[in-house]
Sequence to fold (158 residues):
Amino acid sequence: MGQCTIMKPILPLALVLVAGACAPLSTYYKPGVDVARLETDTTDCQVTAAQEVPPNNQLRSTPSFFYPGTAYCGAGGCFYGNPYWSESYVYTIDVNEPLRRKVTDQCMGDKGYAPVRIPLCPVGLSIPSGRTERLPVLGPNSCAFRNGDGSYQILELG
Fold:
């Protein structure tokens, strides 16, 4: 599976999906830790954060606006035809999500991890098959390659 070859998107959604696939790898990081341990620690911290800061979903809505319609003017004055209200959309938002993310970050920090963003490896680079099992020390030329199964490889170029 390729990294970030962007072709002409047919739909705006396709562009969003492709752009997300080209975003840097954002993860918690502690050199020398097994990826399996990282995943366990992350899940433990997320569960703790969810217990300490449970979801608080609230309904919100976009405002609606009144449009008086088209003005029709003649000798007798003006009147407006086809007035309407714009649609209002209802959505939910979890107002506790930012705090829950902070609690997760704090928990991971207490375990010795730091949040990092690792740039993706350049397109066209010959990447050996495999996945990162133990987090290496990051250098100035470190990059990440996302595998098709959701795993990743962290490489040091040059």
User: Anything to note?
Assistant: The longest strand covers residues 25-29. The chain has two domains: 23-55+98-158, 57-94.
